[in-house]
Predict the 3D structure of the following.
Amino acid sequence: MVPRNRKGLLFPVCISSTHLAISSVRMEPVWSSIGQAAGVAAVQALNSGRELSELDVNLIQDELIQQGSNLFFYKDLTGDAPEFEAVQKLSLLGAVDSDDNYYFRSNQPISKGEFARMVIKGLQIPISITAAHFDDVPRGHPAFKYIESLYDYSTQSTEPFFDYEVRNWLSYWWGERSVQGPPAFAYPDQAVTGAMAIRIISGLLQKNIPSLQTPEANLTRGEAAMLIYHWAGR
Protein backbone atom coordinates (compact mmCIF):
# COMPACT_ATOMS: atom_id res chain seq x y z
CA MET A 1 0.00 0.00 0.00
CA VAL A 2 2.96 2.34 0.57
CA PRO A 3 4.72 3.32 -2.68
CA ARG A 4 8.50 3.48 -2.60
CA ASN A 5 8.96 6.82 -4.33
CA ARG A 6 5.97 8.81 -3.05
CA LYS A 7 5.25 10.17 0.41
CA GLY A 8 1.88 10.71 2.02
CA LEU A 9 0.05 8.26 -0.26
CA LEU A 10 -1.62 4.92 0.34
CA PHE A 11 -2.92 2.54 -2.33
CA PRO A 12 -5.30 0.12 -0.58
CA VAL A 13 -6.77 -1.18 -3.86
CA CYS A 14 -4.13 -1.05 -6.59
CA ILE A 15 -1.49 -2.67 -4.41
CA SER A 16 1.68 -4.31 -5.68
CA SER A 17 1.04 -8.05 -5.65
CA THR A 18 1.98 -11.29 -7.34
CA HIS A 19 -0.60 -13.05 -9.49
CA LEU A 20 -0.97 -15.65 -6.73
CA ALA A 21 -1.62 -13.18 -3.93
CA ILE A 22 -4.12 -11.17 -5.97
CA SER A 23 -6.36 -14.27 -6.10
CA SER A 24 -7.08 -13.64 -2.43
CA VAL A 25 -6.67 -9.87 -2.35
CA ARG A 26 -9.30 -9.32 -5.05
CA MET A 27 -12.10 -10.66 -2.81
CA GLU A 28 -14.45 -7.98 -1.43
CA PRO A 29 -13.96 -8.88 2.27
CA VAL A 30 -10.22 -8.50 1.80
CA TRP A 31 -10.68 -5.14 0.06
CA SER A 32 -12.71 -4.02 3.07
CA SER A 33 -10.03 -5.14 5.52
CA ILE A 34 -7.29 -3.45 3.51
CA GLY A 35 -9.32 -0.25 3.40
CA GLN A 36 -9.79 -0.36 7.17
CA ALA A 37 -6.05 -0.87 7.65
CA ALA A 38 -5.34 2.07 5.36
CA GLY A 39 -7.67 4.27 7.38
CA VAL A 40 -6.00 3.31 10.65
CA ALA A 41 -2.55 3.92 9.14
CA ALA A 42 -3.59 7.35 7.87
CA VAL A 43 -4.92 8.41 11.28
CA GLN A 44 -1.79 7.19 13.07
CA ALA A 45 0.43 9.02 10.58
CA LEU A 46 -1.49 12.27 11.08
CA ASN A 47 -1.54 11.96 14.86
CA SER A 48 2.14 11.10 15.15
CA GLY A 49 3.46 13.35 12.38
CA ARG A 50 5.38 10.42 10.92
CA GLU A 51 5.65 9.22 7.34
CA LEU A 52 3.48 6.26 6.42
CA SER A 53 6.55 4.12 5.75
CA GLU A 54 7.80 4.80 9.29
CA LEU A 55 4.69 3.60 11.11
CA ASP A 56 4.91 0.65 13.49
CA VAL A 57 2.96 -2.22 11.92
CA ASN A 58 2.34 -3.71 15.37
CA LEU A 59 0.49 -0.56 16.46
CA ILE A 60 -1.67 -0.69 13.35
CA GLN A 61 -2.46 -4.35 14.02
CA ASP A 62 -3.29 -3.60 17.66
CA GLU A 63 -5.77 -0.90 16.66
CA LEU A 64 -7.39 -3.13 14.04
CA ILE A 65 -7.84 -5.88 16.61
CA GLN A 66 -9.37 -3.38 19.06
CA GLN A 67 -11.82 -2.50 16.31
CA GLY A 68 -12.73 -6.18 15.91
CA SER A 69 -11.01 -6.59 12.56
CA ASN A 70 -9.94 -10.09 11.59
CA LEU A 71 -6.23 -10.23 10.82
CA PHE A 72 -6.66 -14.00 10.74
CA PHE A 73 -10.12 -15.19 9.76
CA TYR A 74 -11.87 -17.84 11.86
CA LYS A 75 -15.49 -18.68 11.12
CA ASP A 76 -16.23 -19.41 14.79
CA LEU A 77 -14.45 -16.45 16.43
CA THR A 78 -16.16 -13.08 16.62
CA GLY A 79 -14.63 -9.75 17.58
CA ASP A 80 -16.46 -9.65 20.92
CA ALA A 81 -15.13 -13.02 22.12
CA PRO A 82 -12.89 -12.74 25.22
CA GLU A 83 -10.10 -14.67 23.48
CA PHE A 84 -10.30 -12.71 20.21
CA GLU A 85 -7.27 -10.48 20.79
CA ALA A 86 -5.12 -13.32 22.10
CA VAL A 87 -5.96 -15.61 19.19
CA GLN A 88 -5.37 -12.91 16.61
CA LYS A 89 -1.97 -11.93 18.06
CA LEU A 90 -0.85 -15.54 18.49
CA SER A 91 -1.95 -16.32 14.94
CA LEU A 92 0.31 -13.52 13.68
CA LEU A 93 3.20 -15.32 15.39
CA GLY A 94 2.33 -18.64 13.77
CA ALA A 95 1.37 -20.09 17.14
CA VAL A 96 -2.01 -21.41 16.01
CA ASP A 97 -2.57 -24.25 13.59
CA SER A 98 -4.99 -22.59 11.16
CA ASP A 99 -5.39 -25.55 8.78
CA ASP A 100 -8.75 -26.65 10.15
CA ASN A 101 -11.01 -25.04 7.53
CA TYR A 102 -10.80 -21.65 9.27
CA TYR A 103 -12.19 -22.84 12.61
CA PHE A 104 -10.38 -22.06 15.85
CA ARG A 105 -12.52 -24.30 18.11
CA SER A 106 -12.22 -22.16 21.25
CA ASN A 107 -14.19 -24.48 23.53
CA GLN A 108 -12.41 -27.70 22.65
CA PRO A 109 -9.68 -29.03 24.99
CA ILE A 110 -6.20 -28.23 23.75
CA SER A 111 -3.85 -31.15 23.22
CA LYS A 112 -0.24 -31.26 24.38
CA GLY A 113 0.97 -31.03 20.77
CA GLU A 114 -1.20 -27.98 20.07
CA PHE A 115 -0.18 -26.37 23.34
CA ALA A 116 3.50 -27.00 22.63
CA ARG A 117 3.27 -25.06 19.38
CA MET A 118 1.19 -22.29 20.94
CA VAL A 119 3.49 -21.77 23.92
CA ILE A 120 6.80 -21.99 22.00
CA LYS A 121 5.64 -19.63 19.25
CA GLY A 122 3.54 -17.44 21.53
CA LEU A 123 6.34 -16.81 24.02
CA GLN A 124 8.80 -16.59 21.09
CA ILE A 125 11.07 -19.28 22.51
CA PRO A 126 13.83 -20.39 20.09
CA ILE A 127 13.39 -23.90 18.68
CA SER A 128 15.77 -26.44 20.25
CA ILE A 129 16.13 -29.96 18.78
CA THR A 130 18.93 -32.24 19.95
CA ALA A 131 17.42 -35.51 18.74
CA ALA A 132 14.15 -37.36 18.16
CA HIS A 133 13.33 -38.61 21.66
CA PHE A 134 9.73 -39.85 21.46
CA ASP A 135 8.29 -42.83 19.64
CA ASP A 136 4.88 -41.15 19.30
CA VAL A 137 6.30 -37.83 18.05
CA PRO A 138 8.68 -38.81 15.22
CA ARG A 139 10.29 -36.44 12.76
CA GLY A 140 7.55 -35.28 10.40
CA HIS A 141 4.93 -35.10 13.16
CA PRO A 142 3.25 -31.63 13.20
CA ALA A 143 4.28 -31.10 16.82
CA PHE A 144 7.78 -32.59 16.56
CA LYS A 145 9.91 -29.46 16.84
CA TYR A 146 7.71 -27.97 19.54
CA ILE A 147 7.57 -31.10 21.71
CA GLU A 148 11.32 -31.56 21.31
CA SER A 149 11.90 -27.93 22.29
CA LEU A 150 9.88 -28.38 25.48
CA TYR A 151 11.86 -31.53 26.23
CA ASP A 152 15.21 -29.82 25.65
CA TYR A 153 14.43 -26.76 27.76
CA SER A 154 12.96 -28.95 30.50
CA THR A 155 16.02 -31.22 30.71
CA GLN A 156 18.27 -28.15 30.90
CA SER A 157 16.24 -26.70 33.77
CA THR A 158 17.02 -27.25 37.45
CA GLU A 159 13.29 -27.97 37.81
CA PRO A 160 12.15 -30.07 34.82
CA PHE A 161 8.65 -29.12 33.69
CA PHE A 162 7.82 -31.36 30.73
CA ASP A 163 6.24 -34.74 31.52
CA TYR A 164 6.75 -37.87 29.44
CA GLU A 165 6.81 -41.64 30.00
CA VAL A 166 9.63 -44.15 29.54
CA ARG A 167 8.21 -47.62 29.15
CA ASN A 168 9.78 -50.92 30.14
CA TRP A 169 12.09 -51.91 27.30
CA LEU A 170 11.45 -55.69 27.41
CA SER A 171 7.64 -55.47 27.53
CA TYR A 172 7.72 -53.00 24.67
CA TRP A 173 10.03 -55.20 22.58
CA TRP A 174 7.86 -58.29 22.98
CA GLY A 175 4.56 -56.48 22.71
CA GLU A 176 5.16 -54.14 19.79
CA ARG A 177 8.52 -53.83 18.04
CA SER A 178 12.26 -53.81 18.55
CA VAL A 179 13.74 -50.41 19.40
CA GLN A 180 17.09 -48.93 20.34
CA GLY A 181 16.96 -48.27 24.06
CA PRO A 182 13.93 -47.67 26.27
CA PRO A 183 11.01 -46.17 24.31
CA ALA A 184 9.72 -42.78 25.47
CA PHE A 185 6.29 -41.29 24.86
CA ALA A 186 5.20 -37.63 25.04
CA TYR A 187 1.50 -38.25 24.30
CA PRO A 188 0.90 -35.27 21.98
CA ASP A 189 -2.86 -35.92 21.88
CA GLN A 190 -3.20 -35.79 25.67
CA ALA A 191 -5.36 -32.98 27.06
CA VAL A 192 -3.48 -30.23 28.88
CA THR A 193 -4.59 -29.32 32.40
CA GLY A 194 -4.22 -25.89 33.93
CA ALA A 195 -1.53 -27.19 36.27
CA MET A 196 0.46 -28.65 33.37
CA ALA A 197 0.20 -25.39 31.42
CA ILE A 198 1.37 -23.32 34.40
CA ARG A 199 4.37 -25.61 34.94
CA ILE A 200 5.41 -25.35 31.29
CA ILE A 201 5.02 -21.56 31.10
CA SER A 202 6.81 -21.11 34.44
CA GLY A 203 9.64 -23.34 33.24
CA LEU A 204 10.06 -21.55 29.92
CA LEU A 205 9.96 -18.10 31.53
CA GLN A 206 12.12 -19.30 34.44
CA LYS A 207 9.83 -17.80 37.05
CA ASN A 208 6.86 -18.95 39.07
CA ILE A 209 3.52 -17.70 37.81
CA PRO A 210 0.24 -17.92 39.73
CA SER A 211 -1.77 -21.11 39.42
CA LEU A 212 -5.24 -21.15 37.91
CA GLN A 213 -8.42 -21.40 39.96
CA THR A 214 -9.14 -24.91 38.65
CA PRO A 215 -5.66 -26.35 38.02
CA GLU A 216 -6.81 -29.92 37.41
CA ALA A 217 -9.37 -28.97 34.76
CA ASN A 218 -8.49 -29.39 31.11
CA LEU A 219 -7.69 -26.13 29.33
CA THR A 220 -9.71 -25.17 26.28
CA ARG A 221 -7.99 -23.75 23.23
CA GLY A 222 -9.40 -20.31 24.01
CA GLU A 223 -8.24 -20.43 27.63
CA ALA A 224 -4.78 -21.56 26.55
CA ALA A 225 -4.51 -18.71 24.06
CA MET A 226 -5.47 -16.11 26.68
CA LEU A 227 -3.08 -17.59 29.25
CA ILE A 228 -0.10 -17.65 26.90
CA TYR A 229 -0.85 -14.20 25.48
CA HIS A 230 -1.11 -12.79 29.01
CA TRP A 231 2.45 -13.90 29.76
CA ALA A 232 3.96 -13.19 26.35
CA GLY A 233 6.69 -10.55 26.58
CA ARG A 234 6.70 -10.53 30.39
Remarks:
- Residues 29 and 35 are 10 Å apart (CA to CA).
